[in-house]
Amino acid sequence: MDFPERFSNLPAYAFPRLRALLDHHTPGGDVVHMTIGEPKHAFPAWVTDVIAENAAGFNQYPNNDGAPELRGAISDWISRRYGVSADPETQIMALNGTREGLYNAAMALCPEQKNGQKPAVLIPNPFYQVYMVATISVGAEPVFVPATAATGHLPDYENLPEDVLNRTAVAYICSPANPQGAVASRDYWTRLIQLAEKYDFRIFADECYSEIYRDEAPVGALTVAQELGADPERVVLFNSLSKRSNLPGLRSGLIAGGPETIKRVKQLRAYSGAPLPGPLQAAAAKVWADEAHVAENRALYQEKYKIADKVFDGLDGYMAPEAGFFLWLPVDNGEQAALKLWTETGVRVLPGAYLAQGEPGQNPGESYIRVALVAPAEDTRKALSTLRGCLY
């Protein structure tokens, strides 16, 4: 029996690789998980009440594009957060988590050719792994662009060769960045949108960490696109309740963009999508409409930023994250550091190389570890102190 070759060269996903690295070794202490970005703060207590009140909806097929109440709540949130009007009927679709949207948007929107050539998709390196798989799935070429300390931990798409830009169909960008916590400034978005206008490609703006930040809310791509008067189909926004509201299991995400963009994504979703059950859509609508719990959640992370800054004060190369909930810590070798930390202390972190592409010596993540700040503050303090004592 034959199998497709398109995915034959994919490396193992980050977490199976981590298990292969660590699990046959005995942890050196009580296990502390700081690998996966799974929020541990409490979600609003009333969420379960809303689900229970709407439980009869489990007896019905859910609205494929998102119930009107959910799309309306998302539209209102976009207006409050970004100062941009998005028609809930034509410019918004509810997602079953943003990973679905980040994948299916490429399927629905990436052309088979760009200027008569195989299309290129620009991907920051390191990156959220679905970007690469979506690119391969549509027969495009992934172009991995280093996002390193030298570039402010954001990819420098402007200085790519013109022959690459001429066949670029899509550029993925994550701000605040996973894993580095860097934030795209208004100037960065301006230059990227102008580049996209010049070379006629779409920007897939993954802003899932936008509500976790230190002082000022990160500027959004849709905000800048509106200020510039860009083509309304130019920027496609993705966000979710996972990080904002500590509800990764609710799987409520959004995609917003121009009417033609959303029309095409909806058409694909009609054939292949898996929408949220109705009771979960009802709960999600209430959560998108509430900001009080978001501010409380953000304050908890701001406390942990201060803890991390104190623990790593004076550490050469330490970069305090601007936003998000990861530390991107410099080490000599990420795999060796993760293994040492596990076997000597029981603290479990992710080697940075598992989030990036490149041969040894050329992988921009290989001299880093990613550390998730999702545990309660005191647990975080103890784990980070243990980590510093072991590795530095």
TrEMBL record:
It holds the Pfam family Aminotran_1_2. It comes from the Bacteria. The keyword Transferase applies. Residues 30-384 form the Aminotransferase class I/classII large domain. GO terms for molecular function: transaminase activity. Its cofactor is pyridoxal 5'-phosphate. This is Aminotransferase class I/II-fold pyridoxal phosphate-dependent enzyme. Keywords: Aminotransferase, Transferase. It comes from Leisingera caerulea. The keyword Transferase applies.
